[in-house]
Amino acid sequence: MTAPGRRSSTFTRLLRHGFTDASAAERLLDAGELAAVRDDPVLLEALGATADPDLALHGLVRLLEAQPGPTARRELLDTLIAAKPLRDRLLGVLGASEALADHLARHAGDWQALVTYEPRDLHRGVAEFERGLAEADDPVSLRVAYRRCLLSIAARDVCGTIDVAETAAELADLATATLRAALALAEAAAPEDAALCRLAVIAMGKCGGHELNYVSDVDVIFVGEPAEGVDEADEAKAMRAATALASHLMRICSETTVEGSIWPVDANLRPEGRNGPLVRTLSSHLAYYQRWAKTWEFQALLKARPVAGDTALGAEYVAALQPLVWQAADRENFVADVQKMRRRVVETIPVAEVDRQLKLGPGGLRDVEFAVQLLQLVHGRADTSLHSGTTLDALEALAAGGYVGRADAAQLDEAYRFLRSMEHRIQLHRLRRTHLVPEDEADLRRLGRSLGLRTDPVTGLMRAWRRHASVVRRLHEKLFYRPLLDAVAQLAPGETRLSAEAARERLVALGYADPAAALRHLEALASGVTRKAAIQRTLLPVLLGWFADSADPDAGLLGFRKVSDALGKTPWYLRLLRDEGAAAENLARVLSAGRLAPDLLMRAPEAVALLGDGDGGGLAPRGRPQLEQEILAAVRRADGAVQAVTAARGVRRRELFRTAAADIVGSYGTEAHPVEADPGALVDRVGAAVSDLTAATLAGTLRAVVREGWGDTLPTRFAIIGMGRFGGHELGYGSDADVLFVHEPRDGVGEREAGDAANKVVSELRRLLQVPSADPPLLIDADLRPEGKSGPLVRTLKSYEAYYRRWSLVWERHALLRAEFVAGDADLGRRFTELVDPLRYPADGLGEDAVREIRRLKARMESERLPRGADPKLHAKLGPGGLSDVEWTVQLTQLRHGHTEPGLRTTRTREALAAACEAGLVPAEHAATLDEAWVLATRVRNAVMLVRGRAGDTFPSDPRELAAVGRYLGHGPGHAGDMLDEYRRTTRRARAVVEELFYGG
Fold it and tell me: What are phi and psi of 279, to 5 degrees?
């Protein structure tokens, strides 16, 4: 007996052999059935080699208990210990499949099916399975015989005797034998119907493709004809008989009995789907496919294969319809239809399941099958070697014919086999139809061990799955592109390559609107035998796929050619793209997302270095101190103000590109970094980066102007105050810089001299920042100054003080909420801020007259400033629930409560809104609604500027530009309407809050 507190040696051995509940396993081994062999090392080692030793042991005990007597139990145990093939097969199945363990417990003698180990048993075919089902004479016995045959497939599968492709082929052969047996039962039950008709069963889908799962619907199409000797007048009667037989066959396989069901037989791929007749004549099928069939129906026919019933009729069906399959690529909108179908499949996945989907999700089995089938349909017209319904065979043929790169095909083959193996083992456990990776730790452990991952199986499984899914995602579209390069490159004679027409068709298939131009770009980039061309041929297959994932792949490819032409002779450019993981994908995203970023890049292509991971500094924004330091250093080195400001504007252009690129990459996501989950963070980063850059540019320009005109010291202290979005750190790519200019004469300098100097500074500063050049201009807007456009451009601090004390209007106090020092004399800027604080945060709050005035101004702005013909509900700035609505609501709260609530004393909209919520001035749900609308409207404006290269407050009308805005905002291809609906919903909710908080409604 084991001493208290000590573990038995058996317990320790069980843990070492992979048992997770060693105590329960020890009790089972001590039970009567296994007591005689409990210490047998052969048994423990065999159990430890299974996917789930605990499950295997439990199943073995159940099987022993189910034996009819001691003699049978002894026979099973003796055979198990003595015969390694049986031991591996039986325990392998018990450790992988709870459902087959249940079957063995119900049918205790079926373990005998695993004893035989002869060469003909290693790879069974239809004939062997038909013999295994031969004695079944009713639906129940057919199910038992089916499970017995399934047991033999599963045993050889889990032991590695057959690989995943052979397993799938045997499962399809077993389905074929089962359909034949079911049809025989149906005919035996209604011999008069059988005499009237000829019925052929055509397998479709995975069964037709000879690649069936353990648990799957078996897709079929039925073809019927009157039997020989039946009058044509009796055709309707013959078709009714064929329909009755087909219906009975489906029930035999699909209905649940005491032995469960076999699998559902699904005939919905037939013409007209479930609305069409179950059985049609061959001529009726042909007429339908010639006149009415949709593109996806021809894609489905790729896998059509006669499996049961009248073999001659089945062969006639395939012979008649196959030519139509290979003409499908000539159909109008063929590619668009196929792509739409793939998108529709992805969209049907519940959001909670996307990350666990082996079959339908990104990088899943369907991606491989879709890509292979599309290539078959495009190129199979002229190449009969591609006419295979089996995915892996077709992939091999595509590689052999040069339609897919051999290395890509090999990687895809490996990934597909791994994903199918996962799918098989997941389904085998309970024999349930599922394509979801389990979440339970024990299920993942069993799954990993079943695939040979014994050291940390869960981590190993997840790592392998993600790696293979990543390969599929990466190769899914790369499959299409590498052969395109071979088609235009000057390669060795005799190598297999696509024809020009095949290459054109393939580019159209992937969304290129001008395939002829695309081929010219590819030829210019990849032709020749130079090292540069060789690197391009390595890069382009991946880049082209990323371009195709955008709203404008043509623009992406054209931009890449321009950048490559400009930088092709530099030693670092192609090396950067090849060797730094992020650089190539970042460049592809940036070039195909719109006009602004490529335009900025083309003016200084060396900024490509920013897209890498290394010394280029990456895409992280630089702070204002760093920017000012660089710009002021450039100003000191320059000869004259013009050269200095040119240098400052060059830095601004580069940093605008950095900001835009980071925004695009964060919005699109990359393989290494997913889409930024918080759109507010993206907006804040852009606003802060562009505002800091603008401030640094103004500081550098101011220094250049002063140095040019007065040397080191200006006769008057001078400061620039940021206003509006500039002061609020919320500038967009196309925003003007709203400012106020303030000065203060130095000691001993007269008012006139100081005023003249200050005005000259302002005039020269505005001129230099707008001088036509390759760099984008920085427009300075001083219209928020006292008296607006009628007032002087620059005032002394005393003049501001006098004006605000005597004349300031409500709108001016309102505008001062955003006032913040940005450049020039810091002390003067601080004193200006102190001067305006009592105005923008009045001690007594805001009187009702002032509130009414603000509401009146807001209403007038809504009615007068909205552009003629614009849809108000889609105007990001002035429309209901847009930027103006949210900002005025927040600012009214600041004017009313800023004096008593320190958190409201900020120039930033989102900070002020959060502070108002924290102070209990705005309910949390209202604050969230306003914040969401403000962020979305800001992103719309940023997107329009990125896509069109010019500022705008409304969504573009051009479909491609609208799609690009949608991609930036996270909406996939074909979902521009959803984007507009989301915008309307979000702003409608925000407007309801504004009505309540701002207008008091």
Answer: -125, 135
